[in-house]
Automatic annotation (TrEMBL), chains A, B:
Annotated compartments: Cytoplasm
GO molecular function terms attached to this record: asparagine-tRNA ligase activity; ATP binding; nucleic acid binding
Species name: Halotia branconii CENA392
Lineage of origin: Bacteria, Bacillati, Cyanobacteriota, Cyanophyceae, Nostocales
Residues of the Aminoacyl-transfer RNA synthetases class-II family profile domain: 135-453
Transmembrane segments: none
InterPro entries: Aa-tRNA-synt_II, aa-tRNA-synth_II, aa-tRNA-synth_II/BPL/LPL, Asn-tRNA-ligase, Asp/Asn-tRNA-synth_IIb, NA-bd_OB-fold, NA-bd_OB_tRNA
The protein's name: Asparagine--tRNA ligase
Length: 463, 463
């Protein structure tokens, strides 16, 4: 018999149909002569209510096994539900218990568990309502990202995870090595003998696929990456992970205007997609986690994002009737409190700030004619601050070489990146989106460790 | 003016339309009073032919810049082409050159380059016909994979890249560390002091997401991973990469039959998808790279895969009228020559071999009642050998614990994996597909380094 998913039955199952379902017991309620069990198979937040009558052979013995967490297969007949809370329920004709879950030791009993506790059982926490909803929404975000770019003819390109270049200077790097750490080989002058390492030189985990994505954009015009990136930054906060996924589109023949247009369309598309495909999960987050997530999603979808320059943003912040913790002054980077003031209080919608001072931004961003600012853009969102960071890239060889040197980088290591400007260079632009920040933003989850299945953070690489 | 992609113009552009295109010059042919340039924007293998008449202002000066590799923007009018080889061409009304490419130094001149040479210019090689076709097909394979699973309600789950468990024993591991290799800290008894490392213990790059995918399948029923995996194996062959992408679906309430059904449907789907979306690129591979790729694709799509046990396969190999290099005997693993004999010569189509001897397979595969074989399956394909490896997983706690110990692994490190059998265990199964092997198989490319944008191999981590 073909198994049906519970989400599909709840949506479109009709009385008198005879489905078979398989899933895990969430709760059991015993009554006189019958029992209700709620079964979940992960396809939806809602459970299917199964009614088991005492006529069922071995009723007592089976019931004893149907504790929270037990795995079951039920065949039966759908009937309209008389109870509140569900349209339809399954009258069991046969119940098979695959695996039990001892109520004395199974940690997920029917009660609220703290997210801190759930992190200690990362191998079981996806079986809860909240983490289940998070990972369904995470999947929907992923699907939306691929669909958005594939519809527009962008190629998904896999940029390398292991890299020999540390030239982006974007943060602290993890080393990757096949050397024996107990006995690192040395050269005559006591340096590490990297000729004995797997790649013959020092290698690291990537912090961004952008430079390689630019390579691919110079062949395919429009590409995107969607893969893991890494920071060995010792930040034990609710917003930092050592391993996180990033989305980085890169477009040839594109300037900062086109980049902003794409990023805005992209965010609207993802929020719309998730509201449409996961309405029940989003409703759950709005009720249980953060009662502003639905309003925030609607705000993103329905408003044209404000666009202003960094210089104008500084002027607005200087005029603001708010005490900021960090100073505001032209040349200083915007802090989270400033970003949130602009998006939440001033504009009450996402804002795109452009043309930041060159000295606080990366070497590859295109220098404006004022020689002081670069064609960078950050999208600031209510509640979370920066959600997207992008720029038009410097496509002029001589300007790029100047910027590389000014930031103390080695042009020789960047020979191939400079070659892209030597041969068939074009205006091009792209942006980066921290995927877990997006899921956090979408769901209202307070801690980023709860929106990735197996978080990697300082002193923690469990499961 | 909105830019149009060349693939779309070649497909559906009509005479008298006035598009703007942007791309890179592939070739230039000068004639009396006019010139042809072939422009490619990466959206297709075919170029758009642009005709430039000498009436164009600055004709001579512009023509001098239009060398192979130059970046151009052309606006003009589409006209039916009188020449052979194209339906339509673009009569230029304005030509803008963004970036030139000096013919004296630009390495990609109009001639055949060896794939070895192209690997030394990994930042430019995607601009060639062959690598361009490879990466379009690679993208199509990726898109097909997501579409296949999303249509069937599977969640894409991101399993960790950095892992503290080396318990799968699947090969040599890369270490990930934030320690200074020049000065590795020591404990009092001269061991490495991992308490000072980022995660507080030894960590590695993952070799497979399967164990974590099983965690997720026990909550969502059907999931898949699609991400990078790593082997620090010193194999300098045309089939090995140190960094490669893997696809690993995992299904709860699924046995080996269901696993084989899914894998077969999956392969057929991807081949069909790529033939439909990249016909021109596939035709190119068939003509230029390997004249069997189209027949192989049709073979996969149209034939029911042969299914036989390992024991039967050994009997067939023992009877075969072929001299094998490696011995054939029950208990030994199948070598590539044996796999290819079965698929290519005997069955002339893909074959699924099941129920391998337990001692040559991983600890997590379900033990058969004979206690000698496990519910493993490998799909062997003509031309390439093993393309998919999977199994039904051991869901019985006591059997799994026995197998863990028998293979010399530490049950304490696998506590969470064993917990999946302790609480709500179910029959489940999954498989792994090496993504680059698939792309190699699809395209006929001889060397795996030419189907991933930036290959990582022993002594090589360029770009």
């Amino acid at each position: 018999m073909v198994n049906r998913r519970i989400a599909e039955i709840l949506r479109s199952g009709q009385p008198d149909e005879s489905p078979q379902i398989q899933g895990w017991v969430r709760t059991k309620r015993e009554s006189k002569g019958f029992a209700f069990i709620e079964v979940n198979d992960g396809s939806s937040l809602a459970n299917l209510q199964v009614v088991i009558n005492q006529d069922l052979p071995d009723y007592e013995a089976i019931l004893k096994k149907l504790n929270t967490g037990a795995a079951v297969e039920v065949t039966g007949v759908l009937v309209a539900s008389l109870g509140k809370g569900q349209r339809i329920e399954l009258k069991a004709e046969a119940v098979k218990v695959y695996g039990e879950a001892d109520p004395e030791t199974y940690p997920l009993q029917k009660k609220r568990h703290s997210f801190e506790f759930l992190r200690t059982i990362g191998h079981l926490r996806s079986r809860t309502n909240s983490l289940g909803a998070v990972f369904r929404v995470r999947n929907a975000c992923s699907a939306a990202i691929h669909q958005f770019f594939q519809e527009r003819g962008f190629l998904w390109v896999h940029t390398p995870i292991i890299t020999a270049s540390d030239c982006e200077g974007a943060g602290e790097l993890f080393s990757v090595t096949s050397l024996d750490l107990k006995n690192v080989p040395r050269t005559d002058n006591q340096a590490v003998d990297y000729t004995q390492d797997f790649f013959g030189k020092p290698t690291y985990l990537t912090v961004s696929g952008q430079l390689e994505a630019e390579v691919m954009a110079m062949a395919f015009s429009n590409v995107y990456t969607f893969g893991p990136t890494f920071r060995a930054e010792n930040s034990n906060t609710s917003r930092h992970l050592a391993e996180f996924w990033m989305v980085e589109p890169e477009m040839a023949f594109c300037d900062l205007e086109g980049d902003m247009d794409l990023a805005e369309a992209f965010l609207k598309y993802i929020f719309k997609f998730v509201l449409e495909t996961c309405p029940e999960d989003m409703e759950f987050f709005n009720q249980r986690i953060d009662n502003s997530v639905l309003a925030t999603a609607e705000n993103i979808i329905n408003n044209q994002f404000e666009r202003l320059t960094y210089t104008d943003a500084i002027a607005l912040l200087e005029k603001a009737d708010v005490k900021f913790e960090y100073p505001v002054s032209w040349g200083l980077d915007l802090q989270s409190e400033h970003e949130r003031y602009l998006a939440e209080q001033l504009f009450k919608k996402p804002a795109i700030v452009t043309d930041y001072p060159a000295q606080i931004k990366a070497f590859y961003m295109r220098l404006n004619d004022d020689e002081k600012t670069v064609r960078a853009m950050d999208i600031l969102a209510p509640k979370i601050g920066e959600i997207v960071g992008g720029s038009q890239r410097e496509e002029r060889l001589e300007v790029l070489e100047r910027r590389v040197l000014a930031q103390g980088l080695n042009p020789e290591e960047l020979w191939w990146y400079l070659d892209l400007r030597r041969y068939g260079t074009v205006p091009h632009a792209g942006f980066g989106l921290g995927f877990e920040r997006l899921v956090q933003f979408m769901t209202g989850m307070a801690n980023i460790r709860d929106v990735i299945p197996f978080p990697r953070t300082p002193q923690s690489a469990e499961f």
